[in-house]
Amino acid sequence: MMPAPATAPTAPVTPATPSRMKRHRTKEYTQLMNSRRWRRLRAAYLSAHPVCEDCEAQGRTTIATEVHHIRPIEERAGRPDDMQELAFNPCNLRALCRPCHIEAHRVLHSNSLSSSKERARAELSAFASAYLSE
């Protein structure tokens, strides 16, 4: 019997999973996400937007099970009033399926130029929709 050829070890790829993202969450963030106000807003948003918004944009129909904050609440860490404004603003929310939510966080934490430009476009679009539409 011949031994199997040796292969070079490869570094494991660590996906942006919710458990990996939790290490950046503050006490204030956890309190907001566990609040009755957030649970009610989340339920109402999923009721009003039952289909994953990213899948729908790609022509697929997938049930939305998670609510994503377009502008991360953590970016306002240390400013509880600003965190609440981001957390409970319906204009800052998107209904997503789990795979799209994980991908949204993967892209959000990417530092590539294309990802940065894409995030800037999304933020500008959200701002324009919230403040400039009639």
Our estimate of the beta-strand percent is 5-15%
> Would you tell me the overall average pLDDT?
80
**Strand order, largest beta sheet:** 1-2
Secondary-structure element string = HHHHEHEHH
- Rg, rounded, reads 18 Å
Largest sheet: 2 strands, antiparallel
Instruction: List low-confidence stretches.
Output: 1-23
> How many H/I helical runs?
7
Domain module tally: 1
What's the β-strand tally?
Answer: 2
Shape: globular
Structural class: mainly alpha
C-alpha end-to-end distance = 75 Å
Classify the helix fraction into a percent range: 40-55%
What does this structure look like?
The chain has one domain. The chain has a two-stranded antiparallel ribbon. It has helices at 18-21, 27-33, 36-48, 53-57, 80-88, 98-108, 113-131, and strands spanning 66-69, 93-96. The protein has seven helices and two strands; from the N terminus they run ααααβαβαα. It has 134 residues and is mainly alpha-helical. The N and C termini lie far apart (75 Å). Helix 2 runs parallel beside helix 5. Helices cover 51% and strands 6% of the residues. The chain is globular.
